[in-house]
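INFO  loader      accepted 1 record
INFO  loader      residues=99
INFO  predictor   begin
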Amino acid sequence: MMLSSLRYIGAMAVVVTLVAVPALAAPVTDDYLKGYAAAILAREFNVRAPSLRVSGGVVQVPGAELGGADRSAVIAALAAIEGVQRVVIVSDRPAGRSR
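INFO  predictor   done
INFO  writer      dumping tokens
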């Protein structure tokens, strides 16, 4: 009976440890997200976006740097990154000007 109780306590200690470990993970930084987003753009869409910016978890990609890539697919792929709050495709035109 004593051995069974010790096994139970040991098993519970392992479970509690495994559950608590993700809570100790470091928070996701904007620099990390920028690198991750740049890698996805390069690997999945063959796009280099040197003007890619991330601030507060919001990824901003200049539309001019996307070339012929499917914008909705780019948004979906980047939005799937853990820690990304929103994805914005930045227009080529300055705000307030019409052509």
